[in-house]
Amino acid sequence: MHVDQIPVYVYVIVAVVILALLGFVLLRGPKAPPGGYKSTRDPDDPIPGGAGGDGADGSTDSGAGGAGTTVKEAPSLDRPESVGSRMARLRGRLAKSNNVFGRGLLALLSRDRIDQDVWDEIEETLLLADLGSEASMDLVEALQRRVKVEGTQDPNHVKAMLREELLKLVDPTMDRSLAIDRKDMAPAVVLVVGVNGVGKTTTVGKLARVLVAEDKDVVLGAADTFRAAAADQLQTWGNRVGVVTVRSETEGADPASVAFDAVKTGIESESDVVLLDTAGRLQNKAGLMDQLGKIKRVVGKAADVDEVLLVIDATTGQNGMVQAKVFSEAVNVTGIVLTKLDGTAKGGIVVAIQRALGVPVKLIGLGEGPDDLAPFDAEQFVDALLD
Known about the structure:
Strand content: 5-15%
Number of strands: 9
InterPro entries: AAA+_ATPase, P-loop_NTPase, Signal_recog_particl_SRP54_hlx, SR_rcpt_FtsY, SRP/SRP_N, SRP54_GTPase_dom, SRP54_N_sf
CATH topology of the domain at 71-83 and 174-386: Rossmann fold
Radius of gyration: 27 Å
Membrane topology: Peripheral membrane protein
Organism: Kocuria soli
Protein name: Signal recognition particle receptor FtsY
Strand order of the largest sheet: 1-4-3-5-2-6-7-8-9
Enzyme class: hydrolase
Distance between the termini: 96 Å
CATH superfamily of the domain at 71-83 and 174-386: P-loop containing nucleotide triphosphate hydrolases
CATH architecture of the domain at 71-83 and 174-386: 3-Layer(aba) Sandwich
Order of helices and strands: HEHHHHHEHEHEHEHEHEHEEH
Number of helices: 13
Structural class: alpha/beta
Oligomer: single chain
Shape: elongated
């Protein structure tokens, strides 16, 4: 059949099909990445529902989508270990890692005669455990008073006496609960900060597992956009427990925009908690602190930041104290996460850091396993030291 013999209605049908296909493609827009969507808003677009503004550093606090963020979801799920189960297991690890500290103090206090040389040894043991000079002196003075009155012959009596005084220093009255409850139709927002190398991203992933085990709906925000592997690492943690991860596909994107998108995603999905991972290193300390301040300001346009957790590597000892003070000056730290506590006999860092900042240790990490993170319990901690 020649072309001029093809009926007119065939041309009409072909034209209608082509127009329909073009309309579908145009209406559908750009293809979304696997497992989520990619924001198409421009980095300089104003924040929907709120006015943008200049930050203290002179930069503009851009709104959602500035980093071209993507929401990634998980294909397969793990079931995290329950909090009660991990607490029992971690106590055993803590007792093993700090047994030199506890045994040493008990041995010194159980001597038939305790002279000034023994007290000097006791103070040295406390200082080596990173208890801090002020706390060490307070504990030695309290023990000296009790030894004069009560004596130290009975080992059980010695242990009970030491336990009571150590517990006072650790302070069981501090509120160690996490602010992880929804409020005013918005999720709780937890900002996790700290220098690189302390296990910050890993801590965020492990904390997500803790919350999932408590039946919380969680969103992760990969606001550490300066370390290429950070977002991938965080997404892997999220994938294991079915937690959504909001990230940017552009390395070095605006962390505040990613954080804002994560919170908006949490609001829209009616999640319970949004956990925000942040960078730990920039060219200078001032730049890092300004960035954290900006993240908090931008996120605050969508929902309040309820918790700022500072991650400290327990093996760094007094260096961790310096880090803690710097971060506390930049953001209102509400709690401490001590990682790698199983790798040191310096359990006294708990007391020293609480005294320096006036905020409690809320979580401790005792190993590299996915469920090696648990709420800090003052009594269990002291019992583990003396076990």
